[in-house]
Design brief:
The chain is of the alpha/beta class. The protein is about 35% helix and about 30% strand. The protein has a 6-stranded mixed sheet, sandwiched between helices. A 4-stranded antiparallel sheet has the order 2-1-4-5. The protein has a 4-stranded antiparallel sheet with strand order 12-13-11-14. The longest helix is centred in the middle third of the chain and has 14 residues.
């Protein structure tokens, strides 16, 4: 289990990136959901030992992450939000290089590299330069390097951003398989990624955890509290003054609003079956499920 206790980080100028983060993350897929700039990447880099917090403690099993960085890195796989590559270097050569850095050599290295290229559906293009890959292929190569050494902790930061639908499905299926035997921490701003994959989740904004829950339970606890109404766009300001509007969408030239309320907000509203998107927007608006 990965445990974080009172982890805080403040950048120059008094910008608080993380504020008293407390999380317990068991084996399986754990989703960290939040908007851009919420503190997700800062938290990922901190867990991955790439930067130190100002205060707090992080443990992974028996490893004190902040004091035993080398031990943590032996069992860590990390796919950052921006995955760079050397120009004019093939996927095969580059993955062998990463394998050597992980301590894999000879026959062990050959077996691991071949297995991962096959598993990520990159074997047929192994001799192509990585910088010529599509976005989805680069992400799959990124996960291949993150899986070297069979990590017990896998961190993936915004892995589906920019992927086309087919690549996204393939990538999420691969992550789902990995979560069966490891702790997989998925950072994303895409609600559907968490809905489809994660057995537990946390919502973060401005460096603070707003909600930690099982996705299905969080949705269930919103039953009877989400209401829908279709209005004219010029009525939105008045609607926001009168009700707790958590989200709006345009549909056929009109505005669909979702309102958080304990009972019917009034005429014209209908109760709707909540989903994880409603959980997310409710938490962001300050309403706990």
């Amino acid at each position: 289990m990965l445990q974080l206790s009172e982890v805080s980080k403040c950048y120059a100028g008094g910008i608080k990136a993380l504020s008293d983060i407390r999380l317990e993350i068991p084996r399986g897929m754990f989703g960290l959901l939040g908007p851009n700039g919420a503190g997700k990447s800062t938290l990922m880099r901190t867990i991955a030992t790439l930067q130190a917090p100002d205060s707090g403690a992080i443990t992974f099993g028996r490893i004190n992450v902040l004091q035993e960085k080398t031990e943590l890195r032996k069992v860590l796989g990390y796919l950052p939000q921006e995955f760079g590559s050397y120009p004019r270097v093939s996927a095969l050569t580059m993955l062998r290089h990463f394998a050597a850095l992980k301590g894999l050599h000879g026959a062990d290295q050959d077996a691991a590299v071949e297995q991962l290229l096959v598993r990520t559906n990159l074997w047929e293009v192994r001799k192509r330069n990585v910088d010529s890959f599509s976005g989805g292929m680069k992400q799959r190569f990124g996960i291949a390097q993150a899986l070297l050494g069979n990590p017990q902790l896998l961190i993936v930061d915004e892995p589906t951003a920019g992927l086309d639908p087919a690549e996204r499905v393939r990538f999420l299926n691969l992550l789902s398989e990995l979560g069966e035997n490891s702790v997989v921490l998925l950072s994303t701003h895409i609600v559907e990624d968490v809905t489809e994959l994660c057995t537990r989740m946390a919502i973060i904004n401005r460096g603070e955890i707003l909600l930690e829950a099982e996705p299905l339970q969080a949705v269930e606890e919103l039953q009877g509290r989400i209401w829908r109404r279709v209005i004219e766009r010029n009525s939105l300001a008045a609607m926001e003054q009168e009700h707790h509007v958590i989200s709006t969408k345009l549909h056929a030239g009109r505005t669909v609003v979702h309102v958080h309320a304990e009972g019917s907000p009034g005429a014209g509203f209908e109760a709707v079956q909540p989903d994880l998107e409603d959980v997310y927007f409710s938490a962001m608006a300050g309403h706990r499920s």
